[in-house]
């Protein structure tokens, strides 16, 4: 049984309809209908939360829908790889050329037209698609962003959410004019490439994203240099307690770190992740550009502050309890006697004696 048949069967058993499932998944009823009639391919599991929502709503075992979709997508991918790639839609190529810097548009157009979907055209289109998908993935749960983008095309929040789920699942071989008009066109401001080094600059629409410009380079790696991922980074990724809440941009940054002699541990990458999120380390960044704090990070900071407050309180209490030690004069001891009284100094005893003497003389005169 495939995914579509299973969903239809569960809806029938529970006495529910497609619009109920659409409301639970926060997509349009049309999107669910196209999935169940196989007019749309099921989106990739790692790019959406729609399967978890459907799974809970249909009361299926945890992860059942996701596992079935993964198996079905693998079979379809094997069939696609056997066929040669088809050229891009004419509208897609026109958009890619139009987004290029004006002074290079004619040159890029000539290169693209010499070979249908050649290496350079695939490279540029893939990068533009990757950038647009990255922004869309980051904003998938941002309702305000989805509604703002929907106003540009007169679409509802549910329609834009369903459109993004489909867009995130596309690739450079299957990108359509609808994807371009809905996402690539609004999000990409322009792009430029140095054809001698293939260094590429992509400028984003500042009204729809906090990112401004991205840069891609093909870097030459000297012979013998390690290009594989660090073992410590692999362990860091596999430990959910260390990297479970890391975003894709943060993982990409950590994976780009290179070391010549020393080999970092998973704890190093965890601490580097915390440093990356600390706003005190990036004074020039605005609050909107800073990564969102995680609950675990907030709890850790709160515990550190409480610990410091407790230490300061203990120190102040101990300081109040400690006696003031005055320096003794003339080398005499100031320690109290057995009754708690301090001994009188030699000078004070001498001053008292003349007073007693005057009293004695007074008594003799009276007599």
What does this structure look like?
The protein is mainly alpha-helical and 367 residues long. It has three domains: 3-81, 434 Repressor (Amino-terminal Domain); 90-216, no CATH class; 231-289, no CATH class. Helix content is 56%, strand content 5%. The protein has a three-stranded antiparallel beta sheet with strand order 1-2-3. Helix 2 crosses helix 3 (29-36), helix 9 crosses helix 10 and helix 12 (231-238) crosses helix 15. The radius of gyration is 37 Å and the shape is globular. Residues 285-294, 329-340, 345-355 and 357-367 have low confidence and may be disordered.
Explain briefly what this protein structure is.
This protein is mainly α. Helices cover 56% and strands 5% of the residues.
Overall helicity:
55-70%
Count, helices: 17
Described by strand count, sense and barrel closure, the largest sheet is: 3 strands, antiparallel
Low-confidence stretches: 285-294, 329-340, 345-355, 357-367
Gyration radius from CA atoms, angstroms = 37 Å
Share of β-strand residues:
under 5%
Give the number of domains: 3
Structural class: mainly alpha
**H-E string:** HHHHHHHHHHHEEEHHHHHH
Q: What integer is the average pLDDT?
A: 76
Overall shape: globular
Task: Give the beta-strand count.
Answer: 3
């Amino acid at each position: 049984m495939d995914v579509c048949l299973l969903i239809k069967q569960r809806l029938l058993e529970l006495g529910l309809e497609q619009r109920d499932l659409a409301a639970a998944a926060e997509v349009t009823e049309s999107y669910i209908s196209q999935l169940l009639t196989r007019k749309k391919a099921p989106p990739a599991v790692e790019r959406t939360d729609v399967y978890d929502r459907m799974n809970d709503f249909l009361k299926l075992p945890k992860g059942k829908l996701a596992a079935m979709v993964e198996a079905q997508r693998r079979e379809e991918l094997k069939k696609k790889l056997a066929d040669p790639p088809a050229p891009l839609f004419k509208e897609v190529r026109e958009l890619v050329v139009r987004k290029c810097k004006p002074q290079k548009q004619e040159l890029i157009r000539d290169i693209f037209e010499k070979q249908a979907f050649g290496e350079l055209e695939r490279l540029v289109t893939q990068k533009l698609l990757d950038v647009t998908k990255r922004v869309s993935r980051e904003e998938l749960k941002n309702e305000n962003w989805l509604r703002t983008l929907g106003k540009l095309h007169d679409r509802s929040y549910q329609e834009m959410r369903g459109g993004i789920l489909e867009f995130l699942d596309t690739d450079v071989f299957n990108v359509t004019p609808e994807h371009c008009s809905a996402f690539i066109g609004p999000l990409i401001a322009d792009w430029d490439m140095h054809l001698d080094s293939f260094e590429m600059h992509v400028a984003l629409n500042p009204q729809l994203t906090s990112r401004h410009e991205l840069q891609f380079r093909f870097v030459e790696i000297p012979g013998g240099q390690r290009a594989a991922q660090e073992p410590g980074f692999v362990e860091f990724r596999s430990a959910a307690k260390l990297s479970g809440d890391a975003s894709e941009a943060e993982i990409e940054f950590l994976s780009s770190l290179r070391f010549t002699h020393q080999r970092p541990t998973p704890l190093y990458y965890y601490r580097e992740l915390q440093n990356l999120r600390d706003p005190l380390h990036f004074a020039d960044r605005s609050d909107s550009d800073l990564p969102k704090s995680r609950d675990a990070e907030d709890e850790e900071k709160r515990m550190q502050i409480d610990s410091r407050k407790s230490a300061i309180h203990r120190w102040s209490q101990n300081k109040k309890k400690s006696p003031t030690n005055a320096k003794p004069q003339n080398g005499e001891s100031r320690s109290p006697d057995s009754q708690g009284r301090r001994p009188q100094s030699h000078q004070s005893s001498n001053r008292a004696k003349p007073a007693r003497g005057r009293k004695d003389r007074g008594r003799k005169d009276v007599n």
